[in-house]
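Notebook, bench 3.
Goal today: get a predicted structure for Thymocyte nuclear protein 1 from Chionis minor so we can plan the truncation constructs. The sequence was checked against the plasmid map this morning, with no discrepancies at the termini. Length recorded as 242 residues. Pasting the sequence as submitted so the record is complete.
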Amino acid sequence: MPWPSRKRDKGAVADKKEPDAKIAKTKEETPDTEEEEKSTKPPAGTSKSGWKNWKKTKESDSGGEESKITYCHWLLKSEPESRLEKGVDVKFSIDDLKAQPNQTTFWDGVRNYQARNFLRAMKLGQQAFFYHSNCKEPGIVGIVKIVKEAYPDHTQFDQKDPHYDSSSRKENPKWSMVDVQFVRMTKRFIPLSEIKAHHLAHKADGGPLKNMMLFTRQRLSIQPLTQEEFDFVLSLEEEKPH
C-alpha cells in the first residue's frame, strides 16, 4: 500500500496522556494518568468565563436559540510518532497527509464497529479535526474534509497488512474507509489538556463540550462532533493558550 495505515481501533488504544480512559493494560497506555488528571483541571473561573463569552457571542448571532443536537463534524485520531504494528510503521501525521498527492488519502485501518459506523455516516464536504494521538502531547493540529464517502477498506483483505481480517468477505466487507483531504492547519496547536479544562467546566455549567466524545468515549479513533462542539473548539485557535 502507498502509505501506512492510519488507525488501530482493533484493541482500541487511547492516548497515553488522555485521562480516565478505561483501556487494556499495555506498556504504552498506563503512565501518568493521575498526574494528567490533576494537571488538566481548569483554574477557577478561567474556562467558565471563556464559555460565557463564547455563548454570549453565539446567542447574539442566533437570537439565543439552542442548536439542535446533530453530528455534522468529526474528529479523526492518527499517530504522529513511529510505532510498529506487525512489522509495519503506523505513523501518520498531518505533515504526512500534506505530502500526499493532492494532499488526499484514504482513512483506512478502522477496526471498531462504532467507529466504522461513524465513517459510514460521513457526508461529502463535511469537515473534521485532525487529532494527533498516542504521543507526548496529543491534540488538534489541523482540519480536513471528506472528499469521498464510505467504501470498502481494501486493507481488510491484504494478508500483509496489520489490519487484515480473515473473517471479512469481499462480497460482504466488514470494514469501510473514506477519503480525506487537507484543508488547513489550525492557527495554533490545541492540546488535549486545554480541551479537557473546558470540558470539565462545561459539565458544571452546561457548556457545549459537556458531552464531548473525546472524554466520554476516549477509545474511539473516529468521533462525531456537534456544530456547537466544533465551533467552540475552533474558537480556541483565536485565543492565547493559558
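Residues 48 and 201 are 6 Å apart (CA to CA). Strands lie at 71-78, 84-85, 88-89, 104-107, 127-132, 139-152, 176-191, 222-226.
Flagging this for group meeting.
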